[in-house]
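Sequence, please.
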């Protein structure tokens, strides 16, 4: 494989990682807005203290189903938000790792399962690139 081919493939990888990090930011913003919308809609016209106590004593199916659907949608969006935030840091770690060529030196290389921001920062420190 020629060096030129490797450089081109690395540039393509970096571009893809960069695009994916911005895409995940958009996804995170969407899920955050969805959580806010769900809470606002769920609490509209309710007294939080009084209605919470009333809800714990509720036995009618319609109220319990509505609460179940709210909780499911809320949890799904919070979980998706957290996964997207985590992905952003992973993509950023990969961008920094490959952009600085840390994969090319034994001293700074990181095994794939440990490639995250913490270990990327440690590798950058080894070559005197710090905050």
């Amino acid at each position: 494989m020629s060096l030129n081919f490797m450089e081109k493939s690395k540039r393509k990888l970096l571009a893809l990682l960069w695009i994916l990090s911005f895409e995940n930011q958009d996804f995170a913003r969407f899920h955050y807005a969805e959580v806010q919308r769900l809470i606002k809609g769920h609490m509209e016209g309710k007294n939080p203290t009084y209605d919470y106590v009333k809800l714990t004593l509720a036995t009618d199916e319609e109220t319990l189903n509505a609460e179940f659907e709210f909780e499911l949608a809320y949890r799904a969006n919070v979980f998706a938000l957290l996964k997207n935030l985590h992905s952003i840091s992973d993509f950023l770690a990969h961008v920094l790792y490959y952009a600085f060529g840390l994969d090319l030196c034994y001293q700074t290389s990181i095994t794939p399962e440990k490639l995250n921001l913490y270990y990327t920062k440690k590798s950058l420190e080894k070559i005197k690139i710090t905050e």
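Helices lie at 3-43, 48-57, 61-99, 117-126.
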